[in-house]
Each structure stands twice: as structure tokens, then as C-alpha cells.
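Researcher: Going back to the complex we discussed earlier. I've cleaned up the inputs and rechecked each line, so this should be the final set. Can you rerun the prediction on the complete assembly and write out the structure?
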Amino acid sequence: MLQNIHTIGIWKYSELIRERELGCFGLANITKTIQLLKGKFKSSFLGFIAVDDYIFTSFRRLTGSRRILLEECFGELLNNDFKGDAFEQACRRVMIEQGLHTIPNRVEINEPTIPLEVAHGLWGEQKKKTDIDVISSKNNCLLVIECKEIKDKALDRHKLKHFRRFCLEHFYRAMWIKNNPSRFESYVGKDLGTALGVDKTKPVFILPFLVTNIAIQFEELMGTTLISFLELKEMVSSQDFRIENSGQDSGILDINIKQRQVRVPWLLIKELEIPKCVKQKLTVPKYPDHDSNQRP
Amino acid sequence: MSNFKASNKAEAGRQLEKVNNQLKAEYSKNNHIDTILLLLCLEDAINNLEIKFLKFNLTNGLEKEEHEDFVLSMFQFMAEWYNVVNTILNTVIKNDSFVPLKIRQLPQFMFGITLQQNVDDYLIGLGKEGEIGEKDWVIKKPRYFLNRIPGWFFIVIKGGEHKSVEKRMKAILELRDLCYKQGLLETMLRGAPEGTTVEFDDTTGLRKITLPDGSAVESILEREGITPRIIENSATVFDWNSFFRETAAENFKIVDMGKGKENLEILRREDKEIYKSYSSIKNYSYTFKQSFGIDFQIFFEITSEITYLCYKTSIR
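Model: Rerun complete. Updated structure for the full complex:
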């Protein structure tokens, strides 16, 4: 017996497959697992190392090679556009966990949201409908999020170009919300006050973001509001999203996410229809000034 | 410094051929089962150091520039060691025959770095704190972190008195130096701009890259897509689709002494989170079975159980 201080494993192959803890899995499955992590797939990082009769492995080798294999399978799902909405849901979950009012599903908009000439410039056609993946609010700011999953941080020129287009398209989507608040509410299906806890008596702002599952960094994407999932998590846990309303209908909010500064364009929603009940509250007779002594 | 210098691509090409031949000869001499075991121990010690860095990175209050230097230099240091161990391991196992296992007790490795210039003072300090014992064997080597910040790294082999371990470790370090030279020359031939000079000191193992126009190593890394932001935000499915990170943060609290029985329980919880994160994705389990010919849950549980077996205090 060797004394093992590190988390490494060495067995005679015949002994490993007969380990008591593995008994319930069946010989064929154990053998298959070892084969897979012994180099049967393309990674050069081997989970098991077989020399003579021995099988070697370690904590790092097993967890690392398994992670590579699992991500490989996730990549397959992405390639086949087969993955469902797990990432979008994860983004939504983060917002809810951090206490942001969040619409529980994506919002479908059954009309074009991008001006015809812009749409043609971007995609060569105008999409007749679109959807917004995640919408949350904090301090009267609507965070409008488009979720994008990518397989690899190394994007080729073609994909990069696409990403720039996504960013631009998403900005125009936010513009559409700014200019069509009541139509937007009808697609949400509820008044924004109810759906997102927005106080319509005060200015409401829109902040558009594109969120990726892994971080990417390219000069071509500088100046966009593209952030990674972990940055989104950090941002919503540390930011107040308070915008000073100085009468402009758009501007820039500088947001610090750890060491990174992201310049986020904000858009002010004008003419947001105030529900009747709120209107009634607002029409309570006003006092001549704020001096409490003059109140009845 | 400099027992080895290349200042143009033609020279680098010639040197590379020499180094490749030396490596080939050295690899064939390292056909020892002991070498494989020691490489895995070394890799585990690097992993322990990486965990300490991750923990420090979560709690440090460094200013932006210092923080970025820390992240980038540690990433580069770790990546180099992991790569070199992996390369040596993958090549050594291709030997045709092997010298049987001789080591009867696996040594405990400890990996460390310091920016203190007097490394001996630093090591004496560690001795006083009980981190290094009198019988421990310490290998220390200078290094320029990010090619400009002078410091040291050291490997402590606990216990000492392992003649066979010492012999095999020296051979591994020779291979490591050769791999570094190979890496330097390949970088020079493929990635480095014209006018770059690379140097390597055979006595100390210190290497230096001088880039033209005073450009920094960070700019080369950035061109390869490696920046502090990318390093800190790299994420897999379980980073966004589970509470893995929160669970792992608990683990950081108790891994100061390296991995062991104490953190096995949290490791099981981490595993649960990882499994949940993938299995909850629509079509994942189906695609896994189609791609790899084994049920996802069974595969996951087998690898988990073998990982836990690696935590046992003795191995057969």
C-alpha cells in the first residue's frame, strides 16, 4: 500500500474495475467511462493514464477531463440549435435572486421593431416579429436583456460581425420600447407598474444589455453593452441603476463591474400611460407649497 | 544571464532543432512509472496553489492595476506549469517499456511563489511557521512574472530522504527546462514580432523575452485573447446554471491545507450542482448518450466515485 497525501489514484486496471464503490454501475459502464477519459475523444488532457497494467488518475485529471467532455456535449447542442432556453432562464433566475422585478418569461413582439432601412442594412430583410429574452427592473430602470450562448470565446470575423449586428439590433429594440410604451405593455400583457414594479409617476429608463455565457473581448465589440453572465451577476448585485433626470431623453450611464467600466446608453420612456387608479391618487388636491404648517 | 540566446528567427529555428533532439533523448530516458506518479503529485500541488490564488483573488483588495497584474501573472504561471506537466506526461507514457514502480511512499509536494528578493529569508520564515521542515527538500528558481516582475517560485518536497524521488524530480525539472526552451523558440518563430530576443539561463532556469519597441508581454497575451477580464469571467455551464460557485466558495474556506477528507463532503455537493446544471438542459442527456454511448447519469456518477477514491489515504 502506498501512502497517498495528494488526491491521486493508482490502481492495477483489474482492481479499479472491481472497486466496491463502483460495483453498482456494471462492468461495461465502468470500462466505457475509463475508455472515454483515457483519450477516446479529442482532448489532449487525459482523465486516465494507462501504462502497463496500471491506471493513474487524480482529482484534477478526472474533474478537468470530465468538464471538457461535458462542455463538448453542450457544444453539440449549440451546433444543432438544440439547447432550449436554459441560459435565458439562468439569466432570469439571477435577476430574481437579486430581488429585481422580472417578467417570468420572454416577451414576444409580433411586429417589426427595427426601422426598415436599418433592418435591411443589418440582415437584408425586416423581421416581422421578435422577442425580448429577459426584462427586469430596479429603481425605475428597465434592464432589457438579449441572451446569447456561444461555444467558444474565439469568434471568427463572420461571427464577430454578427455580434455587432445583434448589439445594434438590440439597441433599436430598446428604442422601439421607448417610442411605443403602450404597445410594449400590451405585449407584456400587464401594466408595467404591476409587471415590473415601475412607478409611472416618475421617469422610467431603459438600459439594453447583451449577455453571453462566456466572456468575449474584441476591439470590434468595444463600446457595446455586451457583458458576460458572471458580469451580469456581479452588476445586479452591486448596482443601483440610479439615473439623474436632467430633462434629456437619452444619455450614458457608467457602470463599474469589478475592474471594468461599461458605458450603457439609457433611454427615457416618454408618455407612459398612467393607469386610472394611479391618476386618481395624483389628482388629490395639491398644497400651495411644501411647508407643512400651511396644510389643513 | 544567458547560456542560451536567440535573437532572430533563423537562429531560433536552428536552436529549436537541437532542443527537440535533446527532448527526444530525455523522454526515452524517463520511462519510469515513478515519473508518472511524481508528475501527478506535482500537478496536484500546482492545483493546491491555484486554489489558494483563487481564494486570494476573491478576498484581495488590490487596486485595478495591481489586481490585473496579479490575475495575469498567476494565470500565466499556472498555465505554463499545467502545460509543461501535461506535455511531459503525454510524451513519457508513449515509451515502449517502463521501469517498475520503486517509490513506496508518495512524497508531499508544496508549490509556492514569492516576490521577496531574498528568497532564502522567505524560506527561513516559512520554516519558522512550520510550513517547511528541516528534512524537506526545497527547489527554488528565479522568475520574471509577466516577463518583468522579479520573483521566485519554489517546490518543497516534504520529508526528504527520498533518493529515488530526488533523482526522478531532477530529471523532470530538466525536461521542464527543455520544454520551456522549446516553448520560447516556438513563440519566437510563430508569434513574436521581428526583433524579439529570447534568453534562457541553464543554471538558474531564468528566462527572459525582450520584445521590440518596449512592448509588454500583456499585449501578446491580449492578441491571444487572454486578458484579466477574460480569465476572471471564463465560465462553463455549471457556472451559470447552478449554485456551483457558491458551493465552491464554501470549499475555499477549508482548503488551506490542500485537498483532503475535510472538503470531500463539499466536493460531493459541488458534484450535485454540476450534474444538475447539465442534466437540466433540454436534450442534454439524450445528446450525451448519442455522442458518447453511455448514460449521462451513470458516467457522471462513476467519475465522481473514482474522484472520491482518489481522496483515500492509501492507494493499492
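Model: Worth noting: The beta strands of chain B are 4-6, 108-114, 137-145, 149-158, 197-200, 207-210, 314-315.
Researcher: Good, that matches what I expected from the previous run.
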